[in-house]
Specification:
The chain has one domain: Beta Barrel (Porin). The chain has five helices and 14 strands. Strands 1-2-3-4-5-6-7-8-9-10-11-12-13-14 form a 14-stranded antiparallel barrel. The radius of gyration is 20 Å and the shape is globular. The protein starts with a helix and ends with a strand.
Length: 338
């Protein structure tokens, strides 16, 4: 009941939120964790020692992440590179703070005059700094209720234009260990643009309301996660002029088609303690990015992880477009073990 009241409050508060080019600081939607990328772009709802999950959803912050550090790198399209670092210092078993830094490097560009003459070069980049923590509200009889909060500062330097924004992520986590079901409600990127690119031009931020549920099967080494993305905006359809008239455009989709645009499915095959395989499907990505005569596996993703000595290596491959996949690499370790 608490979930439903919270959802209705947020929907009524941010019903004007937009996606798909309707906001600035869009790099906040880029995910650098190979594990999350391989699961369709959304984190599984599980309490373990992976700080990348808690960087995405602060209610997943827990004591098992103490002293863990994670480095991630993604080779994106058009020579764009981005990555992140997450670290949780060991403070105490009852209080944890997770810190994170994300960067996007757009590379160097040639600067020209009005006649096309090269007069120099410039660089463009964006950064995100975050601090998060969680608190147990209830833990009794195989039931756990967590609350998490992450504060974030985003910086953007695009040639001579600079912008700064302050944002928060807020989430609730409910765990039923008896039925092995975890659910979470996450508010992402709720904030305000403190310094605008242009004076008087206040832009929207990439707000998102997300609900996720995960379940570890009792007799199979499999965990599935079902996420419902962008609940703040029911209609995710749009008019794609690159598609034929057979593709439904805005206003023509029925309830089922609109509902499926919100679905993201992730599967983790827990082969052994040190070896996992992953598979994901993002239906919205497939509908928006596929080409009719070359649909291929657009919208799907996969990856794996393995542990070698003190290091866990992660790899993710997202098939975002027929032109080529996006590969992400990551390494996680407990620095207190050295």
């Amino acid at each position: 009941m608490l979930y439903l009241r919270f959802v209705f409050f947020l929907i009524s508060s941010v019903s004007v939120a937009q996606i798909g080019g309707g906001s600035t600081f869009s790099f906040l939607n880029l995910e650098s964790s190979p594990r999350i990328n391989s699961l369709g772009g959304y984190t599984p709802i599980v309490i373990d020692d992976d700080p990348n999950l808690a960087l995405f959803n602060p209610s997943l912050i827990n004591a098992s992440m103490n002293s863990f550090v994670s480095l991630n790198y993604v080779n994106y399209y058009a020579d764009i590179n981005y990555g992140s670092i997450a670290f949780m210092p060991k403070i105490s078993s009852k209080f944890q703070i997770l810190s994170g830094i994300k960067y996007v490097d757009y590379g160097f560009f040639e600067e020209t005059d009005e006649f096309g003459n090269i007069i120099g070069q410039f660089n463009a980049s964006e950064y995100l700094f975050s601090l998060g923590s969680s608190k147990v509200l209830f833990n009794e009889d195989n039931n756990l209720l967590n609350i998490g909060l992450s504060t974030k500062v985003a910086l953007s330097q695009l040639y001579t234009d600079f912008s700064l924004a302050f944002l928060i992520d807020f989430s609730l986590l409910y765990v039923n260990s008896h039925k092995r079901i975890n659910t979470s409600l996450l508010v992402r990127n709720f904030g305000y643009q403190l310094i605008k690119y242009n004076n008087g031009n206040l832009e929207n931020l990439p707000f998102e309301l997300l609900f996720s549920i995960s379940n570890k099967l009792e007799h199979m080494p499999l965990r599935w996660t079902l996420s419902f993305q962008h609940l703040e905006n029911w209609n995710l359809n749009f008019e794609n002029l690159n598609q034929s008239e057979e593709i439904l455009t805005e206003g023509k989709a029925n309830f089922g088609e609109e509902f499926m645009r919100h679905i993201v499915l992730g599967l983790e095959f827990l082969i052994t303690k040190n070896l996992n395989f992953r598979l994901g499907y993002n239906n919205r990505n497939r509908n928006e990015m596929m080409i009719l005569d070359r649909k291929a596996m657009v919208g799907f993703s996969y990856g794996f992880s393995f542990k070698l000595n003190r290091f866990k290596f992660n790899y993710g491959r997202s098939l975002n477009h027929f032109s080529g996949p996006v590969n992400s690499l990551g390494i996680t370790t407990n620095i207190s073990s050295f």
